[in-house]
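#structure-requests
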Amino acid sequence: MRRPGNDSRPVRRREPEDSIPFFLLILLFLLSGCSAGEGGHRVLRFERDGIPVVRTEGAPKYEGPLFGPTQDLVLGVDEGDPEWQQFGSVFDLLVAPDGRMVLSDSRRTELFIVSPEGELLHRFGREGSGPGEFRNLWLMHWYEPGEEFWVEDQDLFRITRFDLEGLFLGTVNYTHIRMRNTFLNRLRKDHWLGWTGEREGNRNITVYEFLDADLQVVRPFLTLPASPSYPISANAYIPIPFTRGEGIRVGPNGEIVDWEPNQGWICRYDPDGTLLYQIEREWEFPPVTAAEEDSLRRRYRESRTESYRRIADEIPIPDRKPAFWGVLVDDTGRIWVERYASGRYALQADERVVYDVFDREGVWIGIQSFDFRPTLIMYGHAYHSGTSEAGGPRLYRHRLVPRYPVPGSDSRVTP
């Protein structure tokens, strides 16, 4: 696989058990601007096959949690007023720089503009195929953060444009590429990154391409491994347990982060697709125990679905788990890497999610844990979904109070 960048040579994926010779580490420490701090924190910057590498060894830069999360807003009620919070499903969320939120309710086919204090500002959208209407209210994307956003409709194969007053601004059709389960993110004006899915029937790859303002393909970006899957019927697959394919995240500034959990790779690109650096540290790859494999196969054998029972003893189980589970990028450029725990999306009682946090330069700066799994970390807040006592969807917001302030920095962008 080739990664775009200043050097066109292919990047060799180095297995975690490979190691850099000790004398080379010493030389890099002396010659490449390596820094040392308390707790054995060391940062090495060097090139491998023409690719800039940022490697953190030892402990992170800061001890203890970086932030103290404090819940400050809940949207979604059990009964009574306000009626607009009786969500059918809070499907997607955008947050503007001033704290205003855009929520989509795919079940009610409605959009809500909400103030930072949780007050309803605008409500619009309905089922249909006319201007401002939807058949399948899907993902939302900023075109200009805080000013204009785009909403996908995957049944109508079009994007509808709105401003934060709820004003309809027009549509952009993408019937020419017939994308489903699309991935779109604006990198800069009239420059998009799109996931157009598998190609030529190959389910094991995912193709990412740069698109123009009309969502026409300009050039390819990356072809990455998809999440491994196992066939259970002619057109049905299940993901192979304990594995994850590569993923992509795009920050508000248009920089792109891609990662591969089973190899421990995290790469950052500029909006043009030039590789800025590759993050490395001493990742842990927990083994898949015999007890875990036995428990998993037993669940397949006891499944109500015949195809799951059939493949109970056939599905391949890897010998190790991923180094991490997923990645978020916040408005400051920090990269939040969720450590692999159970692989469950829903947390169990008293379970916490742990993140390794890297700064904009790729340096491992600290560890942060939550008793919820954030779906978005933006402008000094962490957002996550939940369920009310009546079983309806809820949206929670937590203010992230920094514990390591940087002099001269706004509290929203520290440490």
